[in-house]
Design goal:
It is a single chain. The protein has a two-stranded antiparallel sheet with strand order 1-2. The longest helix has about 35 residues. The protein has one domain: Butyryl-CoA Dehydrogenase, subunit A, domain 3 (Up-down Bundle), CATH 1.20.140. The chain has about 190 residues and is an all-alpha fold. Its cofactor is FAD. Keywords: FAD, Flavoprotein. One of its GO terms (molecular function) is acyl-CoA dehydrogenase activity.
Length: about 190
């Protein structure tokens, strides 16, 4: 559906022996190494979400300035002015989240996991919300891959497909909520 340029394939290891000298990380620490990679990946996906959200906001603002309805720019409508102001604020919040998580990780703080989860969940949800709104602002042009007569393409339909997978990569957003709750309430809470 999305990320058409990404090659995804299975890797299968059967009867593979890895000598102890070639194992990464501490002995019996493979899970820790894998989880550390997920934290880094979540920060990256959070940043990607912010990038998609920013691109969608930029396209939406341009369209609000240039699309006219009822004899005035669509952007003259107070609803869209307030909505875009709110979204710009949310983008800055999402940007701060992934930057804080990256800073904690760069400083060697192993407890960056909840911040990485917050950055990933918030940034990717925002990307989806903003792309959906940008499509709404563009009308049928936003929904189309390309307008046949003019050749115009704003690539929002592609961004919408790509934004959705960001909510799934590096652990679905629902898992991120569990990670955050576990940190807030306690690791020993089950149920």
């Amino acid at each position: 559906m999305g990320h058409r340029g990404q090659l995804t394939a299975d890797i299968v290891f059967t009867d593979v022996h890895v000598p102890a000298d070639n194992v990464l990380g501490p002995p019996d620490g493979g899970l820790g190494v894998a989880l550390s990679a997920l934290v880094r990946g979540r920060i990256g996906i959070g940043a990607a979400g912010v990038g998609v959200a920013q691109a969608a906001l930029d396209l939406a603002v341009h369209r609000l300035r240039t699309r006219h309805v009822f004899g005035a720019p669509l952007g003259a409508m107070q609803h869209w002015q307030f909505q875009m102001a709110q979204r710009a604020t949310e983008i800055e919040c999402a940007r701060s989240l992934y930057q804080k998580a990256a800073l904690l990780l760069d400083r060697g703080d192993r407890s960056a996991e909840p911040e990485a989860a917050m950055a990933k969940a918030y940034g990717t949800r925002l990307a989806n919300d903003l792309v959906r709104e940008a499509i709404q602002i563009h009308g049928a042009v936003g929904f189309a891959r390309r307008v046949a007569e003019s050749g115009e393409s704003v690539r929002l339909e592609e961004m919408y497909r790509d934004a959705k997978i960001l909510e799934i990569f590096e652990g679905a957003n629902e898992l991120q909520q569990w990670i955050i709750a576990r940190q807030l309430i306690g690791r020993d809470v089950t149920g």
